[in-house]
Amino acid sequence: MQSLSNRKKVLEQKPLNFWERIYLPAVFKGLTITLRHFFKRIPTIKYPEQKRPYSKNFRGQHSLKRDEQGRERCTACGLCALSCPAEAITMISAERKKGEEILYREEKYAAVYEINMLRCIFCGLCEEACPKEAIYLDGPHVQPEYLRKDFIYGKDKLVEPKFEIND
Amino acid sequence: MELAFIIEKFALVILIFVVTLVIAMYSTLAERKVAGFMQDRYGPDRAGPFGMLQPLCDGGKFFFKEEIIPAGAHKALFILGPTIAIITACISSAVIPWGRDLTIAGRVVPLQVADINVGILYVFGVVALGVYGIMLGGWASNNKFSLMGAVRAASQSISYEIAMGLSIIAMLMVTQTLSLREIVEQQAGFNWNIWVQPLGFLIFCTCAFAECNRVPFDLPECETELIGGYHTEYSSMKLGLYMFSEYINMFVSSAVMVTLYFGGYNFPFIDSLGLSPNLLAILGMVIFFLKIFAFIFFFMWIRWTLPRFRYDQLMNLGWKMLIPLSIANIVLTGVITIVKDTFF
């Protein structure tokens, strides 16, 4: 039949000639190929000792940011939870009491803020949704755990540590 | 028999046994390393520096694995299989001359366990016995795949032993002796038999691959068709013994090939170095082992280069090519010897 694509190639199987039948030239050819590979540079990265650098826009574990005075930025508006396609984020809000102004920037804050790291797909939509610039996916990889419940990160793991204000 | 003789032989036997086992152990690592490098990756390198402790871990694991003897298996033969395999593998190195004579406190100590005058025939006999281990193990497992592997091993080793023996006959026509020590002594300096018997070496080497059940002739085990062949049902250290015997066979057949064709412990300019005889003996032994390691590397190199033969190709190669070739080699050797004797 005529080939439509014009790429048809008719292969015919010829009987082996003498040099092919005694195998040896082909064997030596193969041996040189494997020997060449034997001395080739090995592309393996030995993981625990060598690490690949992260890309600049790598999205890792979330961190809840503080403002320049060390107060939590999050106001528990719930936009991150709403935007989350994996429904990984949940929170309980609370009202800021008198005297807590040094802890929370807004009048409402997240008393409980949990992200389920097994559900999270690290898409970064929470980062985009946040009006207070309170959440960023700028951490490292999520660490392995033995139990599923340990993957639900609370505020203890998410809020960035307090820093000294040097004024 | 004096006491010193017995002590000397006993020490030599123990030494060779230990060296053989250590080499077999590290061949497993070397095999995986070679495989790795030929496939553009590092082999095992987690246990110790460069993975040097890997064979110890593997050995320990073999000992701690559960030992299973299948319900339908013939228990005695099932245990006898790996036993025969490992014993024949270990005793076949007895006639190999490892080096020149050492002189310790005025006593001449030959670095060879037994210099029997039928040396090469002894190696053949023991290697031929080795296939019983595989056959018994495969049959006693009461498993189709094991039986297939065993049958293949038997027919393969019979077919290739003929060509191997014929290639040796041509060699013996040149050397005029069966004793391995004399064969090595004849190859002093650079007078290696490979220059006299290149075709014979090629046949012998091919048959050695087949006798060791190495790729491309690993049809008795072939994982892809027979799920391990004769050792499908084996577990724990019994499987370990089979693998060990395979690597020991590889080591011994490398040693035999070096002895027969590559001058054994001889190397060029051995006598113009001006060293003491003892030092030369040890240097010769080191050279001998280097040659053996080169051959072991060659075994592995072939393994990671060639695919397995199909069974009919194996038989064609054995019966239709190697046997006629080795007969032609005998005739050629005879003709050349006569021509040389009458005209030169």
Strand content of chain A: 5-15%
Given this structure, which CATH class of the domain at 63-158 in chain A is correct?
Alpha Beta
What kind of sheet is the major sheet of chain B? Answer: 2 strands, antiparallel
Named at the architecture level, the CATH assignment of the domain at 63-158 in chain A is: 2-Layer Sandwich
What would the average pLDDT of chain A be, to the nearest integer? 87
Please give the alpha-carbon distance between the first and last residues of chain A.
86 Å
Protein chain pair with the most extensive contact, residues per chain: A-B, 16 and 16 residues
Beta fraction of the residues of chain B? under 5%
Task: Using the CA coordinates, give the radius of gyration of chain A.
Answer: 30 Å
Secondary-structure element string of chain B? HHHEEHHHHHHHHH
Biggest sheet: strand arrangement of chain A: 2-3-5
Number of strands of chain B: 2
Mean pLDDT level of chain B: 85
Features:
heterodimer, A: 167 residues, alpha+beta, Alpha-Beta Plaits, two-stranded antiparallel sheet, elongated, B: 344 residues, mainly alpha, 12 helices, 2 strands, globular
SSE topology:
The complex is a heterodimer of chains A (167) and B (344).
Chain A (H helix, E strand, L loop, with lengths): L17 H4 L2 H15 L24 E2 L14 H5 L5 E7 L12 E9 L8 H5 L5 E2 L15 E2 L1 H4 L9
Antiparallel strand pairs in A: 1-4, 2-3, 3-5
Chain B lengths: L2 H36 L15 H11 L10 H17 L7 E6 L2 E5 L7 H22 L3 H32 L4 H7 L6 H4 L1 H14 L11 H4 L9 H26 L15 H27 L7 H33 L1
Antiparallel strand pairs in B: 1-2
Helix pairs in contact in B: 1-2, 1-10, 1-11, 2-10, 3-4, 3-10, 4-5, 5-8, 5-12, 8-10, 8-12, 10-11
